[in-house]
Amino acid sequence: MRYLIVLAGGLFFLASCSGPKKVVSQAQAVEARTASGFSYVHHIRNEGPRPEAGQYAIFHVIMTQGDTVLFDSDKQPQKPIVQIPEQGKIQLKPSPILEGLALMSIGDSLSLQYPVDSTVMTYHLALKSILNSDQHKQELVTRQKSVDSEERAALRKKEHRAILDTRFHWKQYKTRQIDYLLVENPSGLKYVPLEEGSGKNPETGQLVKVHYYGILMDGAEFANTYDKGREMSFQVGKNQTAPGLEEAALQLKKGGKAILFIPWELGYGEKGINNLVPPYSDLVIYLELMELLE
Predict the structure, then answer these.
(1) If you count Cβ atoms within 10 Å of the first and of the last residue's Cβ in the chain, which end, N or C, has fewer?
(2) Rounded CA gap, 285 and 294, in Å?
(3) Are residues 289 and 162 in the same domain?
(4) Taking every pair of C-alpha atoms in the chain, what is the biggest distance, in angstroms?
(5) CA distance 226 to 155
(6) How far, in Å, CA of 34 to CA of 115, rounded?
(7) Which residue has the higher pLDDT, 239 or 2?
(8) Which domain holds residue 87?
């Protein structure tokens, strides 16, 4: 259910809802004031219970200043939710949203004027639902599942790109078709920059979080942090992982990505790693620098 502001001889909120309601036309609308003196006008008013202290309100809000829309909660992933404070509880600053919601029933809409310095902001509110404490807990669980699902989908998308980019550049590298793209360090590390990232490069000893996908020169996969859903953390230059991986991390900024071609001397050396990386193995790694930590 969407709420629309119609600019045609005045502001109106339109909403569809069940139960008895009173739709107030612009000609009939009467300006009133909240407890703190904010002026408001109901556009749709239902005959129903209002949110009580301790309950939670899920609502839609559009904030405008003149003809400029400053914020529209419909453009956010989830609708805002707020707890109605206990009566008499001291607030450092009156909240136009809380005072507006306290005057509404489910399906109501109103516009509230909020003076700021020499101008006025208008909050256009529509109350979606009222929850008790148990319902609020379930709502939070539902929202977290939605967030987790979106994060997993985003991570799968990143993983897909990492696999495609790695295997494409690996094949091109073997046939020397990307020699012109390669950056080679004095150590023997070679890499193809994909994205520069932003901010500063990590310093030696700094803790970083990375995602990476790695294959051997025969194409066998040996590492995939995307699949595990968890980044790898290490201190750059402290020999906590393959030397070539640490060296490459110094070349990136937050959000930076590169395809690494690591000779065995800068990889896992003469011993390899268990059954994942045989001794003397050159490596191809897709590296994404996720975060720099203090």
Answers:
(1) C
(2) 25
(3) yes
(4) 85
(5) 6
(6) 13
(7) 239
(8) 4-131
